Every structure is written in C-alpha cells, then in structure tokens.
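Example 3.2
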Amino acid sequence: MMTKSKLAIVILNWNGKAFLHRFLPVLLQNCPDYASIVVADNASTDGSLEMLSRTFEQIRIIKNTQNYGFSKGYNEALKQVEADYYCLLNSDIEVTSGWVQPIIQHMEQDTCIAAMQPKLRSYNQQSYFEYAGASGGFIDKYGYPFCRGRLFEVVEEDRGQYDQEMEVFWATGAALFVRSDVYHQAGGLDDDFFAHMEEIDFCWRVKNMGYKVMVCPQSVVYHVGGGTLPKNNSRKTFLNFRNNLFLLLKNLPAQRLFVTFFVRFFMDNLAAFVFLARGNWQDFFAVYKAFFSFARGIKNMKNKRLRIQNFDAYKDTCKTSIVFMHYILRKKYFDGKKFRS
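Structure, written as tokens:
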C-alpha cells in the first residue's frame, strides 16, 4: 500500500544519469520532512536505474516501460503516487535552501491556487533568469508564450525587479507545483503533446476550471536547460510549432479560432523561411512536418475541446502581439502588465 505524503517531488528521468548524480544530493539536503522524492524513469539506457539503486537507496523509483515523453511519462508515474501536492521537477534543476516552503505555504493559504512555480535562474549564468520559465509565463493573443524576465531571446539579469508574487498565465514544467486532486481532475498533462508546451496547455485548462496559476519568486531554483533536447534541435522545433497549434485549437474561444489561425499560418510560414535564410534546413522542414502532424491531430483535439466547460481564461491572455511589440516597437521587457524598451 502506498503511503500518502504531503508533497511528492517527482523527477521524470530519461538518460539523465549525470544530472541525477549531480543534483539529487542537493535536493536531498533541501527536502522538507513532509516531502518524498520519486524518480520516474522513462526506460533509460544509460545506467540511471543502477546508479539510483546503488547511491540513492532512500529514493523511490517508478519504472515506465518505455520512453513516454514528458506528458505521458508523468501521467503514468503519478497514477502511482499518493500526495496532497506534486512537484514536477526536471532532473537538470539545482534547488536552493527553503525553496519548497513558501510555495506550499501560499497554496495552503489560498485553495484557489492550482499550480505555482518558483523563480528560475540559469545554472550556467546564475545572475540571469532561465529561458524556460524565468519569473512566470504569459501568452499573447496569437498563442506565443513568453515570460516575465524573458522575451524571445532577450533574457534579463535578475536584479530583483520581478520579485513580487503574482498570478501568471502558465507555470513552467521544469519545476511545477500542483495540487494532486486538480491534476487528476483536469486529466493531467496531454499525452499527445509528448513534450513541450504541455504545461501551458495544462495551466490553460485549470484556469478555465476557475483556478489560479502563480509564481513565487521567494523560491529560487537553477535550471541547466536543454538537458534532453538542445535548444537548436529540430525535434524541439517540430514539437514547439505543432504543440502550440494543438494548444490553441483546444483552448481558444470559438470566436477567436479563425483570426488566430489565419495570422498563425502567415507567421509560422514566415518563421520557416527565416530558418531557411539562416541555413537551418532541418528547422525549416520541421515547421512543415509540424503542420502535417497538426492536421492529422485536428479531429482528436476537437474532441478534447468538447470536454472544456468554458473558455474564460482567454481574458487573461495578453491582448497584443509580442511579435509586433518586440520586432516592430522594439520592446524588450515585460513586467507582468506592461511592455517596455
């Protein structure tokens, strides 16, 4: 019989032996008494399981039968984890002292908070925010995600300018705290995303359910980033473009679908030819591979859309285009409310 803990910190691993060996000791040192640590392994072949069994006997291991990707990998593992709260934690995260307590405290004080993230800094440039989550995620009117502290390739130095806790549109999947009952009520992460943007889809759905998504900058972690797929990997390009379209088809209000997809068709084609102009042939083809994969998945995504009771969360999206704001008006920063140069 599984023992229920207050918090289960669950790391999904796929051939991340080096990261586990480097960062698990720090996690163990900074794990509160009410938390358990679980490593869910996606059929690694790099000796991860043997190293865990030999070096970290106190950590529970869940063995997935194949590499299910991020979404299904977590869904399968979390069916076997009993806790009030989950923390979905990347293997390439270094935590800091006291990183858990402020988040759990906020979530216990406000039961409307479904998900919350810490502030993400770069492991390699530790005074800077990290691309994947920075100090909270947002999304523009055409579905392009960005962060407080990161707008396209502009990643800011953390000088405390975004240290206020606030409601955001999405919380990073690199270190995602979530209520377990809400996770399962929402159906977990979308298996069909495999990896990338699944956390944005999840947060959008829980916001449509009436919950809040927050960032807690008093909690800080350091993220290596690109641990499984490097940033310039064409597989990542494919997943990001396809999943972003899945995200919009599932969650946008009906009256926004036509104009959004009309604009996105133009913008995504433009992005493809920018890749081509830069000599990135693999990324160019990845965009069109994403279009075809999206087309094959339209019926499935429409069926999932039918399960959504309301689309109220759209009101919390940014009502302008970050492409226009950044590339035309030269805005480089976003504080959670306004863009600035």
